[in-house]
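Quarterly update from the structural biology core.
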Amino acid sequence: MKKNTLDHIYESYMMDIYRYLLSLCGNSYVAEDIMQETFLRAYLHFEACTTENVKPWLFKIAHNAYIDYKRKECRSYAEEKEFFDNISDCKTTEEQVLIKEQLNEINDFIGKLPENQKQAILLCDYNDLSYKEASEVMGVSLPRFKVLLFRARQNIRQKAGSGDKYE
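Predicted structure, tokenized:
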């Protein structure tokens, strides 16, 4: 990790960390605060870190900062309705609206998952962490993580297939 400067790490991973935290807490202001706390903690422990793979290290810090926030505030997170603000791949406004509705529906399904399943799917499917990296971030064994991810995906498929948004 010593080859990476903290500025470079911040520029490279800031948006990934922000999106992860935003999807957890559902509030852009809170996500920004926790993101700043994440990078403050990373700064304070930057010299002590020995890992070359910075991304899972940062996600672990963000995960812990979120848990600390949740403990302090003792309130549940809200569902994130605007998971992706810009959809630039679409050619027409109609396609953009349809995709945004689909993303919001999937995001609603994710928001209804149990906390550990929600984090598993966000770390792996939305933030591209490997199973091993994500299991380390969550502090669970690799087999346990795989079960959580499988159940999360299965729950989303069932809800999407049945049209049942709310259980």
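Residues 74-88 have pLDDT under 50 and may be disordered.
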